[in-house]
């Protein structure tokens, strides 16, 4: 009997000696075998998804519908017919009129990382076959800030739309006025607004599409002057951000404060449009407000 128990004890002892006590941690080499960017995590719901699948879904989370930010090039590809645009003023770049410290270097880094010259791309194309002039802002370039070049390009786009009698569509996203250009940046608010006033006096149609985020001088000027104002779901916009407002009034704001849905309830937005429906919605609006002969003239060259 004793011999049997000894045998069992030896077997149990061998089992625990051979059993690993710790999980194997992948080495750095193993980690590098997984291609960077193949997976992405939704900022809202935390779901891990294939980046390609999210891209196919117009960069909208397939789980919760969260709208990830688009840069100007992506938005043009998703919105204009065949993703094609005849670009205006592509060679226009910002200078450093106030000799602001490190401004030139920051501009150079933004150009290199985004492939853009500044925070907006303007030009003309078609949506649903209807000719339009568009201005598409890009938050990844210097936070989409409103500087002299951004204001000038948008103003020129408005003037071209006035001359050609094309509808104007502006996709806004911005952190506000560009500090490094001071008063020259703030002047763009008045300049773009004045151009829009002339455009409106000539019977032009201006559709403003607000995307996340849109704050400061952009929201206080052209972004909120549209004949029709659309916004993407969850897009936050206003003049000052919620943190600044809370610190000023010393009150807690509602969680949904300044979202597209909140602003729609309070009369600041005409319609909140899912990204997958944006092209169709814009096409319908253009169809309702564009003279039929204009589309026919474009189709016939």
From TrEMBL:
Could you say which residue ranges form the zinc fingers (C4-type)?
42-64
Compartments where located: Cytoplasm
**Top enzyme category:** transferase
- State the UniProt keywords alphabetically: ATP-binding, Cytoplasm, Fatty acid biosynthesis, Fatty acid metabolism, Lipid biosynthesis, Lipid metabolism, Metal-binding, Nucleotide-binding, Transferase, Zinc, Zinc-finger
Instruction: Look up the domain of life of the source.
Output: Bacteria
What are the CoA carboxyltransferase N-terminal domain coordinates in residue numbering? 38-301
Protein function? Component of the acetyl coenzyme A carboxylase (ACC) complex. Biotin carboxylase (BC) catalyzes the carboxylation of biotin on its carrier protein (BCCP) and then the CO(2) group is transferred by the transcarboxylase to acetyl-CoA to form malonyl-CoA.
A single Gene Ontology CC term: acetyl-CoA carboxylase complex
On subunit structure and binding partners, the annotation says: Acetyl-CoA carboxylase is a heterohexamer composed of biotin carboxyl carrier protein (AccB), biotin carboxylase (AccC) and two subunits each of ACCase subunit alpha (AccA) and ACCase subunit beta (AccD).
GO BP terms in the entry: fatty acid biosynthetic process; malonyl-CoA biosynthetic process
> What does the cofactor section's free text say about binding?
Binds 1 zinc ion per subunit.
Q: Where does Zn(2+) bind?
A: 42, 45, 61, 64
Record family assignment: Belongs to the AccD/PCCB family.
What is the protein name given in its UniProt record?
A: Acetyl-coenzyme A carboxylase carboxyl transferase subunit beta
- Organism, scientific name: Paenibacillus flagellatus
Name a Pfam family for this protein.
Zn_ribbon_ACC
Q: List, alphabetically, the PANTHER family matched.
A: ACETYL-COENZYME A CARBOXYLASE CARBOXYL TRANSFERASE SUBUNIT BETA, CHLOROPLASTIC
Task: Cite the GO molecular-function annotations of the record.
Answer: acetyl-CoA carboxylase activity; ATP binding; carboxyl- or carbamoyltransferase activity; zinc ion binding
Please give the pathway this protein is involved in: Lipid metabolism; malonyl-CoA biosynthesis; malonyl-CoA from acetyl-CoA: step 1/1
Cofactor dependency: Zn(2+)
Write out the catalysed reaction. N(6)-carboxybiotinyl-L-lysyl-[protein] + acetyl-CoA = N(6)-biotinyl-L-lysyl-[protein] + malonyl-CoA
């Amino acid at each position: 009997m004793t011999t049997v128990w000894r045998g069992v004890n030896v077997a149990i002892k061998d089992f625990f000696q051979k059993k690993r006590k710790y999980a194997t941690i992948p080495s750095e080499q193993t980690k590098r075998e997984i291609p960077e960017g193949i997976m992405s995590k939704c900022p809202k719901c935390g779901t891990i998804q294939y980046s390609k699948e999210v891209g196919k879904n117009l960069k909208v989370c397939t789980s919760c519908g969260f709208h990830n930010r688009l840069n100007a090039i992506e938005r043009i590809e998703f919105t204009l017919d065949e993703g094609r645009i005849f670009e205006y003023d592509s060679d226009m770049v910002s200078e450093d009129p106030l000799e602001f410290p490190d401004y030139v270097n920051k501009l150079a880094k933004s150009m290199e990382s985004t492939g853009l010259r500044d925070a907006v791309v303007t030009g003309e194309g078609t949506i649903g076959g209807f000719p339009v002039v568009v201005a598409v802002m890009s938050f990844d370039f210097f936070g989409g800030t409103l500087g002299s070049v951004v204001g000038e390009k948008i103003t020129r786009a408005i003037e071209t739309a006035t001359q050609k009698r094309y509808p104007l569509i502006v996709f806004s996203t911005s952190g506000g006025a560009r500090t490094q250009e001071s008063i020259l940046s703030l002047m763009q608010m008045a300049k773009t607004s004045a151009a829009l006033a002339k455009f409106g006096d000539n019977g032009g149609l201006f559709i403003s599409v607000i995307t996340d985020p849109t704050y400061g001088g952009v929201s206080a000027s052209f972004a909120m002057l549209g004949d029709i104002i659309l916004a993407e779901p969850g897009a936050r916009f206003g003049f000052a951000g919620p943190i600044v407002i809370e610190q000023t009034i010393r009150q807690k704001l509602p969680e949904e404060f300044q979202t597209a849905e909140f602003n729609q309830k309070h009369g600041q937005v005409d319609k909140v449009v899912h990204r997958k429906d944006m092209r169709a919605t814009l096409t319908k609006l253009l169809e309702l407000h564009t003279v039929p002969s204009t589309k026919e003239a474009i189709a016939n060259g």
